[in-house]
Amino acid sequence: MTSKTNRQILLVEKPTGKLAPGNFKMSETSIPEPKAGEVLVRVRYISLDAANRAWMHGATYRSAVEANTVMAGGGIGEVIESKDPGFAPGDIVFGDTGWQDYAAVPARHLAKMPRIEPLTHLLSIYGIAGLTAYFGLLNIGRPKAGETVVVSAAAGSVGSIVGQIAKIKDCRVVGIAGGADKCNWLTSELGFDAAVDYKGGNVYKDLKAAAPKGIDVYFDNVGGDILEACLPQMNLYGRIACCGAISQYDGVPSETGPRGVPGLIVVKRLIMQGFIVMDYMEQRDQALSDLQSWVQSGRLKVLEDVIDGLEKTPQALIGLLAGENRGKRMIRL
Q: Which of 33, 54, 95, 204 qualifies as a cystine partner to 110, CB 3.0-4.6 A?
C-alpha cells in the first residue's frame, strides 16, 4: 500500500459566480496514516449533492470548505486499517471522506453500514437521499391520503423519492422539474399524477392547472421563484418542508422571491419548517425498514446516476447544479 499515492481533488479557489472546473485541481499525496481513534478508509463512492456548493459560501450545519483544502463530501468506503476498536478492516462505512481515494477519519464521525449489493444503494435510497425524503415528507409534511403534495427538483435524488413515498401514502403528487423529458419521465415511469416544467411555461399558472384543489404539502428543494409560486396556492393549514434552496447556491443569489411570506403564513396558518436529516437519526431503523419493504415490493423505484472516475467529480457536480441528473448522482472510484 505504501507504493500507492492518494489522489485528491482540491478546492483551489472559492467561486464568486457560477462554479467552474477551474475552481478545482487534482493533486497527489501519500496515503495517510491513521492516528489513535482514526480509521483509514478506501473510498468507493462519493456522494454529489447541491449542499456541496452551499458549503463553499460559508458555515452551514458544518464548517465551510476553505480554499486549498480537499473538497468535502460524503462517501461510502471500506476500512483498510483501524486504530479504533469499533471498526475492523473490511467494514463498510459512511462518512465525510472528501473527494479523494483514501481518507483518515475519526471513528466517531463514521457510521458502519451493512454490506449490501449494490453498494450504491447506501448513498441513494438507504442513504442521505432516501432518509431526507422520508423524514422531511413524513415528519414535517405529514401527508394524509387524498391530499395534494407538490415537490420541486422532482427528478433529483431526494425529490424523486419524495414523490414516490407520497404516492405510497395515497396522495395526489405533482412534480416540478426542468424540461419536458423529465416531466414525462415523472408521470410515465415514477407514477406522479402531474408534472410542471419550470423551464417551459408559467410555473404559477401551470401549477394551478396541475393542482386545481390547491397544495396541502410542499416539499421545497429550490426556494426562490418556485417557492414564491407555490405559497399563494397552499391550502389552509398547509405544511412546507424546507429541504434546500438550490436556486440560491450557484452564482449570484436571487434578490427576488419569495415575497409576501409573512402575510400568507398568517392568513393560511401555514407551517414552514427547515430540517436536516441528522435531526431524525433516532428514527433511522424504522425509516430503513419502510424503505426496504417498499423497494422489495416494487412500490419504490431506485434511481441512480453513477459516473466513473475521481477526475470527473468537479464537472459532475457542476452538471448536477445545472439539473443534468435523474435520481442520485455519485462518483465511482
A: 95
Query: Do 11 and 150 share a domain, yes or no?
Result: no
Write out 78-140 in H/E/C secondary structure: EEEEECCCCCCCCCEEEEECCCECEEEEEHHHCEEECCCCCHHHHCCCCCHHHHHHHHHHHHH
- Cell 467494514 maps to which residue? 91
Whether the model clears a pTM of 0.85, i.e. scores above it, the answer is yes
Q: Which residues lie across from 40 on neighbouring strands?
A: 81, 104
Q: Is the dihedral of CA 234, 139, 50, 174 positive or negative?
A: negative
d(C-alpha 114, C-alpha 212), whole Å: 44
Is residue 243 domain-shared with residue 107, that is, in the same domain? Answer: no
Q: Are strands 328-332 and 304-308 parallel, antiparallel or unpaired?
A: parallel
Counting the structural domains of the chain, the total is 2
296 belongs to a structural domain: no
pLDDT per residue rounded down to tens, the chain (333 residues): 444 899 999 999 998 888 999 999 999 999 999 999 999 999 999 999 988 998 887 766 677 889 999 999 999 999 999 999 999 999 999 999 999 999 999 999 999 998 888 999 999 999 999 999 999 999 999 999 999 999 999 999 999 999 999 999 999 999 999 999 999 999 999 999 999 999 988 999 999 999 999 999 999 999 888 999 999 999 999 999 999 876 555 555 555 567 767 778 999 999 999 998 889 999 999 999 999 999 999 999 999 999 999 999 999 999 999 889 899 999 999
Is the same domain home to 117 and 142? Answer: no
Asked if 58 contacts 65 with a C-beta cutoff of 8 angstroms, the reply is no
The answer to whether 217 and 149 have CB atoms below 8 angstroms apart is: yes
What is the domain extent for residue 239?
128-278
